[in-house]
């Protein structure tokens, strides 16, 4: 998947359309992708990606989430 596809996929779970991904939205995304232990993975993903500690993943932190997804979720994301 490309970075653009990853952003678009993640954006589908931004239910309040605020441009940020909450813990619940991330959990829904992991669960929607067929991931097991979604609550644990989203907690770890949020901890890893949320560099400012506000409880959300915003546009400035998306690369942190990409790194986490590639290392721990088996997602392959390429830059095109």
From TrEMBL:
Q: By its UniProt entry, which InterPro entries does this protein fall under?
A: EF-hand-dom_pair (IPR011992), EF_Hand_1_Ca_BS (IPR018247), EF_hand_dom (IPR002048)
What are the alphabetically sorted keywords of the record? Calcium
Molecular function per GO: calcium ion binding
The EF-hand domain sits at 1-36, 41-72
Gene3D superfamilies attached to this UniProt entry? EF-hand
The protein's matches in SUPFAM superfamilies, at most eight in alphabetical order, are given as: EF-hand (SSF47473)
Supply the name of the protein.
EF-hand domain-containing protein
